Amino acid sequence: MTAVTSPIEMPVSRRRVWGRLYHGETSIDFMGRKRWGLGVSAALIVITLVSLVAQGLNLGLDFKGGVQWEVPAANISRQQARDILTANGVNAVDAKIVTVSASGVDRLRIQVGEQTQEVSKKVIDALGAAAKVPIAEVSSNSVTSSWGSEITKSAIRALVVFIILVALFIAWRFEWRMALSAIAAMVHDVLISVGVYSVLQLDVTPATVIAFLTILGFSLYDTIVVFDKVDENTARFSGARLPYDDVINVSMNQVLMRSLNTSIAAVLPVLSLLVVGAGLLGAIALREFSLALFVGLITGSYSSIFIASPLLATLKSRSPKYVNLRAPHATGADLERLVLGGSPTAKRESARVRATASSARPEGDTTPSSATVRTPPTADALLSHPPRPRKKTRR
Can you tell me the distance from the alpha carbon of 111 to that of 97, in angstroms, rounded to the nearest whole number? Predict the structure, then answer.
């Protein structure tokens, strides 16, 4: 009787969905869904570019220059404020007049282009008289366009220097392909955040720029978390002929819970600032800062999975080591086996055993093969080493 070798056993997770997620044992085919992620990003970027070309950004006073007045809004309306501007020779059509809340008091904020000190003084007197408040309660702030231009140039220089330093560090710590992918994800996050401000025509202030720079840091951190695991698994599978998509899939499944925890822990405080601070308390400055952060944190988590990782896989698959590996990446049970630490060769060995067992069966035999029926192991099979001999006793 010919003995048939049993198939290779594969590791299987016995935990439920949340347990597998918590322990990094999920088997989600991220690379199989990369076209959906890239498609969504492409659509958002097109909307952003169209909005930037059509209506641009709503730059605040600090960037475009001008004069801003604030007066208690209890006894004055927006139309009255426009009439005062027109009466003093100020273009009221392009004036931005909004109601803001500070310390529970509503105030009328009026922003116009650059004006002379004489005109500004007349407007202050007229606003105080119309609002029935002392002149001291009417605040005025003036910024020249040259100062706003200098602020813009400084922000751009800081952004360029930051990107160059980050790219050099990632290229030194990992490789240039990871550096390029991380920078692309960072640019994607900032571009989408800028698009939100352009579409909704929200004020872009220095607080917004600070939020954009903060977005860069978070996007980089979340991407590095994934890339560090990718680097570790690249070394782990270095001796196997495994497509790089499998390395990416395994890595992202193993750090998925960590990425979610980081994102949720960062989004919740920002969401409280946006809802409580800006929504309930009416703090406009908090809204300008927290909205950019909120959008950036979400896009940062998204881009590390659907932008940085697929781009890295595309670049890496063209390297000499992976250029000839055109096999489809693992999915389902095969991907789960790799995530749980199974050997990349186990699938081939198991298939070889099943093929050998099938060819040994007589034609027309429909009974289950002994290679596919799991039988309880014997006591000898459970022993991993021979019994230890007894020690001789001296007489």
Answer: 6
**Record: fold of 24-57+147-316:** Multidrug efflux transporter AcrB transmembrane fold (1.20.1640)
* Residue 120 token pair: 């500004």
Task: Kindly state the helix (H) or strand (E) to which residue 33 belongs, with its residue range.
Answer: none
Q: What span, in angstroms and rounded, lies between the C-alpha atoms of 268 and 259?
A: 14
Single-letter residue type at 250: V
Structure token digits, residue 191: 């571009």
Helix (H, G, I), strand (E, B) or coil at 191: helix
Over the stretch 232-289, which tens digit does the pLDDT of each residue have?
888 888 777 788 888 888 888 888 888 788 888 888 888 887 777 666 666 666 777 7
| Dist. CA 362–CA 358, nearest whole Å | 9
Per-domain boundaries in the chain? 24-57+147-316, 66-143
Question: Which pLDDT does position 16 carry in this prediction?
Answer: 62
Reduced to 3 states, what is the DSSP secondary structure of residue 66?
Answer: strand
Long-range contacts of 155-159 (CB under 8 A, 24+ apart): 155/209, 158/213, 159/213, 159/216
